[in-house]
């Protein structure tokens, strides 16, 4: 790919920035793992003094042909640097059995380093690392979940907490128009956010009015008018000679008359926080008594964004922040620091220049994106949900004393069903990605068949599978009541005994256990996958015969009569 007139495109389509080919200014260590020959390294500097931090993003460039020109679309790998920094931590735990104070020391150092490199403020990093370490060492082992997966989950939960936990919704006035006052430094994207917000609220069914309160930059009024027209929202303006507080008050009156739901007030930005700016904002705030006062901050300014939110909150009292230009931020320091440093939530985030690029800030989704391990997280959560510690211990006792019965079998089967569609669950199990949909459907079907046979067993039969192993009459009755064949019933009985043996072996090998139904399923599916075409059925048949024989031997041991003897 040839060198691109990127600065021209960037200034119009992306951000004010300068460009350097990686060969000229490559950081000592690549920031993102997905470096390719077609990537460019962009640095950001601009008219805004807060951009002076040397923000580097590794970006992928995709070429797209438009009718008039060849346009290059820039897509920054979101928080790629942080993601790969954290990945280093998990890797160090591969092969460990449990999380201990000793074996988490190095991963914790990686996490600390990754967060500091992401420009998260130091006190926040310290608190975060301490919270994660405490939990990691204190947490009990979840069966079937590896320590590295467990640490991913702990870090994820702490990240969510750090970013405020829940999504912080916009608040609307109980009566009359809701007034949203937007404040922020110059160039952070306030004017654009006004229109994006109106567009977003329109989609929620609210009528809006935009108020042009930036009287110091005439172009801002024109910009707002154009954007207002673009999103189909009226703009209230009085030129540049009237005080912003007066314009805001008049705009609100106009909205009341027209029964408009939300008034969004744009205000002037400054290069830095100065006294007159704060005074003017206070005046505007007093004039319209806003429901929401939102500070628009640029994500690329990292922890400075968090400090700014704190200052504005102390000076004028704000209700939250809007983080813009998240699409250009590869580090994530602002998203991670704002809540913890200022105590104020991030309510919305801007992810691009288009009007639809504004969305609520979801701490859980953000944490998921940072970690890039959605599958592992869902798997750990589901495993936690299904295998509560007490259940697991009880089950372990039963297995060790060879008491695992059809009630447990059913419980496990239902637990799996509770986890949702089998296909989803299997997809979450590491190493199970290659299972085909037809194999999954097959497994789901056989679970249903098993359930129907267990449902018609008596309590005694469920508790003592030996009764079924010993009595063809009982098996015949179950077959006829469940509408299945005798062979299917025999297979089920054999399977239970085989599961007892397998689980006992498994428990002997590993300290924890695993979800038996899943294990069983995983193994049988894998076996089927490996079988050469045409042999699956034959193999299944001979396998079931072998299982039956195993079961017979097992059943013969405790009772006086062997499996298959007449009752
Ligand atoms: N990539 C990207 N660009 C954005 C985003 N939000 C705003 N911009 C761009 O940032 C630049 C500045 O936006 P404005 O809305 O003019 O900023 P402002 O805060 O009103 O600026 P002043 O009126 O000078 O204070 C524009 O080129 C916007 O298109 C975003 O979320 N992502």
From TrEMBL:
Single GO MF annotation? 7S RNA binding
EC annotation from Swiss-Prot or TrEMBL = 3.6.5.4
Q: What Pfam families does this protein's entry cite?
A: SRP54, SRP54_N, SRP_SPB
In this chain the SRP54-type proteins GTP-binding domain maps to 345-358
What domain of life is recorded for the organism? Eukaryota
The cross-references to Gene3D superfamilies, in alphabetical order and at most eight, read: P-loop containing nucleotide triphosphate hydrolases, Signal recognition particle SRP54, nucleotide-binding domain, Signal recognition particle, SRP54 subunit, M-domain
The processes (GO biological process) annotated in the record are: SRP-dependent cotranslational protein targeting to membrane
- UniProt cross-references to InterPro entries, sorted A to Z: AAA+_ATPase, P-loop_NTPase, Signal_recog_part_SRP54_M_sf, Signal_recog_particl_SRP54_hlx, Signal_recog_particle_SRP54_M, SRP, SRP54, SRP54_GTPase_dom
Catalytic function, reaction form = GTP + H2O = GDP + phosphate + H(+)
Cellular component aspect of the GO annotation: signal recognition particle, endoplasmic reticulum targeting
* Top-level enzyme category: hydrolase
Give the region (Disordered) as residue ranges.
460-485, 523-567
Keyword annotations of the record: GTP-binding, Hydrolase, Nucleotide-binding, Ribonucleoprotein, RNA-binding, Signal recognition particle
> Which family is this protein grouped under?
Belongs to the GTP-binding SRP family. SRP54 subfamily.
Name used for this protein in its record: signal-recognition-particle GTPase
Origin species: Iris pallida (Sweet iris)
The upper taxonomy is: Eukaryota, Viridiplantae, Streptophyta, Embryophyta, Tracheophyta
């Amino acid at each position: 790919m040839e060198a691109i007139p990127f600065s021209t495109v960037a200034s119009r389509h992306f951000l004010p920035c300068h460009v350097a080919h990686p060969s000229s200014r490559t950081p000592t260590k690549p920031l993102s793992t997905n470096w390719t020959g077609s990537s460019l390294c962009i640095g950001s500097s601009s008219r805004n003094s807060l951009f002076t931090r040397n923000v580097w993003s590794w970006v992928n460039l995709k070429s797209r042909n438009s009718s008039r020109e060849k346009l290059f679309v820039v897509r920054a790998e979101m928080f790629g640097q942080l993601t790969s920094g954290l990945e280093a931590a998990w890797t160090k735990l591969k092969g460990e059995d449990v999380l201990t104070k000793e074996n988490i020391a190095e991963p914790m150092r990686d996490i600390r380093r990754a967060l500091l490199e992401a420009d998260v403020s130091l006190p926040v990093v310290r608190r975060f690392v301490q919270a994660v370490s405490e939990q990691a060492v204190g947490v009990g082992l979840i069966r079937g979940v590896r320590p590295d997966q467990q640490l991913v989950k702990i870090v994820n939960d702490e990240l969510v907490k750090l970013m405020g936990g829940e999504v912080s919704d916009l608040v609307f006035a109980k009566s009359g128009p809701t007034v949203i006052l937007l404040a922020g430094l110059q160039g952070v994207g306030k004017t654009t956010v006004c229109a994006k917000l109106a567009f977003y609220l329109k989609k929620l069914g609210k009528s809006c009015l935009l108020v042009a309160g930036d009287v110091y930059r005439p172009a801002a009024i024109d910009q707002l008018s154009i954007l207002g027209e673009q999103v189909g929202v009226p703009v209230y303006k009085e030129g540049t000679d009237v005080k912003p507080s007066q314009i805001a008050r008049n705009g609100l009156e106009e909205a009341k008359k027209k029964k408009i739901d939300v008034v969004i007030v744009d205000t002037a930005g400054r290069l830095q926080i100065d006294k007159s700016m704060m005074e003017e904002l206070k005046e505007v705030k007093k004039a319209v008594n806003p429901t929401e006062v939102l500070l628009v901050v640029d994500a690329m300014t990292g922890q400075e964004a968090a400090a700014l939110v704190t200052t504005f909150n102390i000076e004028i009292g704000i209700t939250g922040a809007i983080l813009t230009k998240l699409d250009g931020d590869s580090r994530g320091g602002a998203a991670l620091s704002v809540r913890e440093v200022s105590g104020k939530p991030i309510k919305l985030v801007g992810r691009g220049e288009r009007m639809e690029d504004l969305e609520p800030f979801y701490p859980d989704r953000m944490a998921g994106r940072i970690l890039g391990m959605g599958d592992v997280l869902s798997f750990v959560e589901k495993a936690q949900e299904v295998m509560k510690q007490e259940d697991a211990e009880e089950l372990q006792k039963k297995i060790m004393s060879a008491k695992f019965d059809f009630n447990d079998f059913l419980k496990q089967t239902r637990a799996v069903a509770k986890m949702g569609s089998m296909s989803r669950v299997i997809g979450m199990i590491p190493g199970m990605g290659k299972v085909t949909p037809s194999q999954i459907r097959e497994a789901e079907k056989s679970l249903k068949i098993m359930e129907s046979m267990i449902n018609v067993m008596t309590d005694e039969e469920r508790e003592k599978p030996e009764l079924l192993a010993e009595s063809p009459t009982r098996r015949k009755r179950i077959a006829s009541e469940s509408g299945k064949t005798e062979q299917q019933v025999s297979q089920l009985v054999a399977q239970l005994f085989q599961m007892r043996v397998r689980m006992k072996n498994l428990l002997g090998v590993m300290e924890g256990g695993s979800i038996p139904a899943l294990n069983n399923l995983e193994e049988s599916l894998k076996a089927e996958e490996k079988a050469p075409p045409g042999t699956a059925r034959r193999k299944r048949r001979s396998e079931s015969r072998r299982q039956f024989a195993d079961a017979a031997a097992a059943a013969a041991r405790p009772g006086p009569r062997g499996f298959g003897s007449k009752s």
